[in-house]
Amino acid sequence: MPEVIVLFDGYSTKLPNGSMDANCTCTLIKSTKLIIVDTMTAWDREKIVQALAQYNIKPENIDYVVCTHSHADHIGNNNLFTNATHIVGLSVQQNTIFYEEPQILNEGYELCPDVKVIATPGHTAEDVTVLVKSTKEKMLFAVTGDLFEKEDDILEPSIWKALGTPELLKTQSVMRSRVINLADFIIPGHGPMFRVSHAMREIVKNQIIE
Ligand SMILES: [Zn+2]
After folding, report:
1. How far does the centroid of ligand 1 lie from the alpha carbon of residue 108, in Å?
2. How far is the CA of 163 from the centre of ligand 1 (A)?
3. Which of 26, 57, 118, 169 is 20 to 30 A (C-alpha) from 51?
4. What is the DSSP string of 181-194?
5. Residue 127: is its pLDDT beyond 90?
6. Coiled-coil regions in this chain (predicted)?
7. pLDDT tens, position by position, 21-42
């Protein structure tokens, strides 16, 4: 049942003055629950509403909002989805009730059959990845947030290293290898979806920081 639809491909470009022009990938998962992963910047409200409307979905129909981490370009429109449970990193929030979900750190927190949230720290201490087993393609999709910035960061690891939390580089290198070994497709935080190859898995394994 689960179907993965990338509503917007993320991107990131370094500007001459040293700041970044960036927006995150925004992904819709259609299953027995409706799930949106990462809600872009606060200036993208109308874009998201219109993109969902193409699938006959209204913001109030969304059951779960998952933010892979709490940076401003990944949480900008969470308040469009007031009927949803919000998972931001390791915390789960519904209305004013807020708790940490231990399953995210352990076996994974199942949102519905074949969709779960796992902890993949590194870019920040609280990153999560959404794993989706698609029945149609029989493939595993990993919506990774900035664990993978974009496909290019496999051959150019300086890209993710420059943006990650310095004390967590080793953790991120391990998590990257773990996720790329599981996934058939990766939907990175700031680039288009890409298919995982055996060669990529080897490269990422060799980048594990001891
Ligand atoms: Zn980001």
Report:
1. 22
2. 9
3. 118
4. HH-SEEEETTS--E
5. yes
6. none
7. 999 999 999 999 999 999 999 9
